[in-house]
Amino acid sequence: MRLAFLGTPEAAVPSLRALVDAGHHVELVITRPDRKRARGGQLSPSPVKACALELGLTVRHRLRDLEDLDVERGVVVAYGRLIPADLLARTPMLNVHFSLLPRWRGAAPVERAILAGDEETGVSIMTLDVDLDTGPVHLEKRVAIDEKSLSGLLDELAVVGAAALTEVLASPELLANPVAQVGEATFAAKLSKEDFHLVPSLPAEQLLRIVRLGRAFTVVSGRRVLVESATRVDVDDVPSGSIAVRSAQVVLAATDGAIILDRVRPESAKSMSAMAWWVGSRLQDDTARWT
Which of the 8 DSSP states describes residue 242? Predict the structure, then answer.
């Protein structure tokens, strides 16, 4: 099948590779423009562009480059922009969406599923329409969330989604008979910096969910600390909002329990064990607070 592919992050790469491996002709790849790296000022391609160039595919950065392209379908995986109605009218498009629609329509479905404590998520292969993630679904695959990190869960969903995509494209029946979404719709708004902030007013279980997103931070005695990994612990002698050492472990006390900090990264420093950070910071049990 002659296809156009629209995608940007690493999670879209397995789908692009799967299309090529399945023998489809990817005539054009649309992705975001190259961006400057944080250091050095050199331009860095998106993961999808790097993969496409490796595969010898043509890459462009403007949606309007699709207007004169002779393809049967477009495939969209985490592209990051809405597709205009006139392009959808001209070229039907499939979307690999990382949720069980209509739950978690929108920009951050995997993050929101973790934060909400959902037991499972999955992949929906849907036909794009002009509204946000409202199109009919051709195929759904379910994935258990368990205690997976965001990065680990995204990696798994990317592989599952790639397989589901090629399954739909290989099946005239699945391709021709999508099913309308049924159930209560929820919306996965993009996360802000504050969504990653660990504060004492949150339950311990919610703190751990935020840590699993990979960008969690808190402020200890006025200094910002990234929390890379943590576990649940039962303690009853550390007041909520306090940070202390118990049994050679650094404990953050929350509203309904506490968590143990395993690895942290202070500002302008490298990743280290929480105990190494505690000792180096010269914090004291009776005065240290986290906010």
Answer: B
Low-confidence stretches of the chain (pLDDT < 50) are none
Residue 260 near residue 229, CB atoms below 8 Å: no
Q: How far apart are CA 47 and CA 31, in angstroms?
A: 9
Query: What pLDDT does 40 receive?
Result: 65
Domain ranges of the chain: 2-188, 193-281
d(CA 159, CA 215): 23
Q: Which amino acid is at 105?
A: R
165: left (phi over 0), alpha (psi -120 to 50) or beta: alpha
Residue 167 half-sphere exposure toward CB, CA atoms < 13 A: 16
**Cα of 229 vs its chain's centroid, Å:** 17
Domain 193-281 is found in CATH 3.40.50.2000: no
Token pair 């480059």 in the structure block, residue: 65
- Tell me, what amino acid is at 172? P
How many percent of the chain have pLDDT more than 70? 99
Q: Which pLDDT belongs to residue 55?
A: 98
- Per the DSSP assignment, residues forming a β-bridge with 123 are 141
Query: Strand 257-266 and strand 249-254: pairing?
Result: antiparallel
Give the pTM. 0.94
The domain 2-188: what is its CATH number? 3.40.50.170
Integer Cα distance of 40 and 5 in angstroms:
30
